[in-house]
Amino acid sequence: MSHTRSHQLFIDGVWRNASDRAFIPVISPVTERPFAAVASATAQDLDDALAAADRSSKAWANMSPKERGAILVEASNLLANKIDAAARDLSEEQGKTIAEATGEYRRTVETFEWNGTHAERLCAASQIDENRTIKLEPAGTVAAFTPWNFPAVLIARKLAPALAAGCTVILKGAEETPSAGVHIVEALHEAGLPKGVVNLVFGVPAKISTHLLASPSVKILTFTGSTAVGKQLAKASAENLQRCILELGGHSPVVVCDDADLETAVPAILEYKFECAGQSCNAPSRVLVARSVYAEFLTRITDAARAIKIGAPDDPATQMGPMANARRIEAMQRLVQDAVDRGARLELGGARLDQEGYYWPPTILTEVPSDAKVLHEEPFGPILTIAPFDDINEAIDEANATEYGLAAYFFTGDALTKEALTHGLSAGSISVNFLKGVSADSPYGGIKQSGYGYEGGEHGFRSFQNLKLINELQPSR
Fold it and tell me: Domain named Aldehyde dehydrogenase: which ranges (predicted)?
């Protein structure tokens, strides 16, 4: 197999090939051909990673939080210095634009810096009263499974708090986008992270998860991905009672009220929807618009979406690159065909572009019947459904009418409407009059079938700690 570059595993402080020298090809979303390869871990490689994490766990847990934090801050500085090269690699593998990849790495740097800076504070004991103290201890070895859509920042959201808390980690990076794990682990290694504390593996996902979760050494599973896979991993983790942090699928609604500023709402929805070609679990997928402004909104958003420049991700003029893989193209075809067959109206897009690469244009559907799959399955691509509503309770019911509960958005200036929507929408995160991802200091988690547990901020940090209650009877004076 001839490739321009190969990515190795990182086990016990050493870069190495898989023990059987097997590789998985990395396919370019632009050319649809292999351009790199990534080592595919064997059971022996995984056992070596588990053993390395075990050997290093005590010393790492006993290192002061201030020292651990300093390593993370140094790693964030080293990563910041190579953002341009790392972003180019990510864009080439995943298909997102260079600008999007650069923005993702900036958030990655911020996440390592925040967790490193706050490590000492978040590991400090706290007093309940003069007799009782809560001591915070690292929870143990973490198995972290990360996806291909935002590989750098989602690695950071798992790795940074786990390491700052004093846990060792076996990181399973995404085989489609291996460079993110490689760049981040390189930065940690250069920053002085002791060997064995982080081990990076790639390979056949089901084999890796089965093997790692069968080990009683693993105390925590953290996973971002589909609801179906999350449920399988939760079942596997039950055998050893591993703590789960599951950030799963989404099907995010946007409610556009009759007083919404469309000059603000339309570009905000478009930018966040079509970033990463819509392959984001936070991306809005269903827009509900007050009937009085529906026609104007539909015209504005369709015209603006039609003007989005699709092209090669390394072209500075490109606003939306290709989808990441052939599977996503097949899913778009299936969802659009199903909706149209059931009577939906195709306002824009709806067919793969007739050129090399996994290019799918912005697609807008209206008059979508309630039984269409696109309203119930996470689209995870550049498909947006738009529907009118007559009153706010109807909009809330419609917004909540999926099994997902990750993110929701709305636009209004009215205080009572704002209160009704923030109270009524079922989601782990709600954004008012804008759409944006969460920052490093914010907790983030889904409800319903979008998962459980929290990532980010203080609440996410606690996911990697055990709380030890110390009861001490003070001697009587």
Answer: 15-469
